[in-house]
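This part of the workshop introduces the protein records we will be handling. A record pairs a protein's sequence with a compact description of its fold. Backbone structure tokens are a discrete shorthand for how the chain folds in space. The question running through the whole workshop is how a given chain folds. The record below serves as our worked example for the rest of this section.
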Amino acid sequence: MKAWFGALYGLVVYVCFFGTFLYLIGFLGNAVVPKAVDGGASVSLAEALLVDVGLFVLFGLQHSVMARRSFKQRWTRLVSPTIERSTFVLAATACVALLMWQWRPIRQPVLWQVESPVGVGLVQALFWLGWGLLLTSTFLINHFELFGIRQVWAGLRGQVIPTSRFVTPLLYQHVRHPLYTGFVIAFWATPVMTAGHLLFAVLGTAYILVGIAFEERDLIAQFGTRYRVYREQVGMLLPRPFRRTQTRTTAGQS
């Protein structure tokens, strides 16, 4: 029964995550969804800054603390390892949903506004490129492990949860964190950049840089010299074209 509950729990969490992910696309694109980054009732600038920054801090604390290996080691004494990742995904999803629900818009000033239909089309194409890069990156490593499905499936089948392996497929041979690169592109690619959207993009990008620092510290602790060499040879969010040959060789050896 525990295994079946874990599998059902993981599946429900994944559905909630993916629905929230789709809503986030509409939220930042100011399209389709009922509440977008520039939508909702106007409030004072002080209230908007206090609430919006506080929401990002809440997400950052949840995500950074629960993603750490030291926390996971203690947490799995209380929660089954098969649902640990799903629980992390659920908490992160709840924080993102809360952020979008309670976000306070700041519509003025408008920092830029693309008027040309061609320009708007190019910016929107870049926006979708960011989301496509993000989603593709998750499948290159292991989409279903990243969001807890592989773990609950292993629990249902009575198998040992697979240990993480250091791999650098395709995009990861040129950029260490293409998933985060996709996020950054999606945050900034908008034909109308309001002050509120700018605040979201700045806070989101800042958290990504902080999160990478914590994540890479854990990766070095886990994989040691192999990851140090990889970090030296491959760019964090942008490729290093002049070192591409070295990167491919190292990746092949891993």
